[in-house]
User: Fold ANKF1 protein from Molothrus ater.
Amino acid sequence: KMTQQMRDLQLAQARKPPGPSSPNAAKRLYRNLSGKFRVNYTSFDEGSLVGRGEKEKLRKSYLFQSNAALFEAVELQDLDRVQEMLKHYSPEELDLNTPNSEGLLPLDIAIMTNNAPIARALLQAGAKESPHFVSLESRSLHLSTLVREAEQRVNELMAQVVNEAPNADCSEKEKQLKAWEWRFRLYKRMKAGFEHARVPDAPSSVHLSVASSTSLQVTFWEPLSVNSAVVTKYKVEWSCSPTFSPLLGEAVIDKLKDLHFTIQGLVSGTAYHVRVSAYNMKGWGPPQASMPPFAIPSNWREYDGRAPRRRGQAEALDHLLGQVKTVHQHCICHEPCKNQPQSRKHSVSKSLKHLFHPGSKFLKTLKRGLYLTAIFYKDDNILVTHEDQIPVVEIDDTYSCLLMQDFLWLTKVSCMWDEILWLRQCVTVSQSSCSCILQTRFKMLLAISQMQGLLGIQDLGQVFFEPIKDKQGNILIVTLKEVKTNQTFESVRWVPICKLQSGRKSVSSPEEPTALDTLLISLQDKLAYHQRSSHALSPGLYLGYLKLCSAVDQIRVLVPEQLPNILCHVKIRSNPNISREEWEWLQKMASVEEPVPTEPETDRSQNPLFQELQVAIKELMTLVNIPLQEAKDFRLYSQEVLDFGDQVSFLLLLPPSDDVCTAPGQNNPYTPRSGFLTLPLQIFELGEER
Assistant:
């Protein structure tokens, strides 16, 4: 007989729709559904269904069939089909953690048949073990009951098949007999798997690291044993005592996609011991102590009590900008009614008169001068005018050379696209000095306003790091912006980039292309640069290589082409925090003026950061194509750790002091020759801020 617990379970299951009438019926259902798993249930809304209630009823019926098919896929050990169903259905849609009529969950079947691949796939999808197995005895009793009832059913059907004359009913009973024989073997295999299983071994390795001043990160790996049952959860315990008495806390981890855990809310400066144990259907295994045996929550800033570099900077800049605006309250920009006295008349500015106004048109060709172009792209399409031209407006037709200071000023303005009107009118007030610089910058603001007005878009995007120049005296400043949503515009339209490039008729020779032709030829490269410059690093601690070169009017910094908003770098580890103890070691290394370590020493071999730095330095030297023996004079920057938010931090590797910044004409032995580019330092700083 069933135990009282299983009787209660059957009563709870009475509300659930009945499953297939026999194992054979379930197999047929599994085969019939096998070609339909890519069809979402919402497709039922497309046809003859009338009432919403009827649609919902059919949806539930279809999902119940999928749930039954998942059980069959697990029982038949069909890993591909299980993975396919988990990919196309959510756990809720599959009723992943609802027991079937036998009181089992898909994960129960997988672990008791010791099918580790299917069990891991189910665990990563959020599958749980049945909560009804509160003890080893209850699980054993339930399996024995299933085996006994299946055997009894097989004997009954066998007697009926032997005693009855051949007919249609007999043929059906033979099918049922085969199905119950198969299920009898399944239950016996599950029972044998449970009986032969043992508790798991300890995790093969447990690594402990300092995550912050109040937290530790624990990373662990599966037990090495292959004969025990599948591990379904882990337990992390921590204490101030090496004997773990008293225990300060514990956490059970049953989401096994990533085997790590961060212990929060600890006391800075206090040593904590950590251990991890694994669990399977036979219970908890022995714990594995961490390496190192304990860790002290801390941060490198605690070494000298240094405050974060950027603390309060954003607020201070906002306050400063507010003060500047307050000083210019008398500007016409704060009196919109005076700024546009004819605003009512211009409300009908979509007329032909407005379109043919000479100051409101995009340019088709370039004459000698300074111009602004805006590149808006989405996937493989780009915004062009109705004449199939890239939007271009004139800044100054008398400007034959672009001073780097003016260009860098414009890149800073790109951080304030919404404030162009205010900036323009305040510069107008300041023009009493008749400064040539102010006049040029005022014309830049006018051109930006014109571009914004013609496009109907305020944010023109990011300024490309260098303007395009041609031998005809044209200078083209390029802005780039990716459009994420489907938008329509009145004065421009979307066209494929390839169509624009192939359809344009060049008016210049290949030897001396105009700035517009150069833009079209290099358009793909500029879009790739823009996309790469917006990529973010994954959390971790990185080793960066700082190399500068100077010119007459600027300093440039070496960056990788694949990630131009970050210094050349390699990842040291996933934990971005440098602990106080690690920072003390780095300070000692810097104080004795030792070169960057490339060979291990006995007293350092146990220092994890030293070993990580050794690997990172070799990898970085290979990346920038510098022989490792030349790195003997390189130095680690020991003044601070560069923190970029809470998740990314950098240690800097510097060439010898005389070679950090290369002067014009100076031999540059520490600059790689391919896969990198140099950006103006101000452009790099803006890209890092973005």
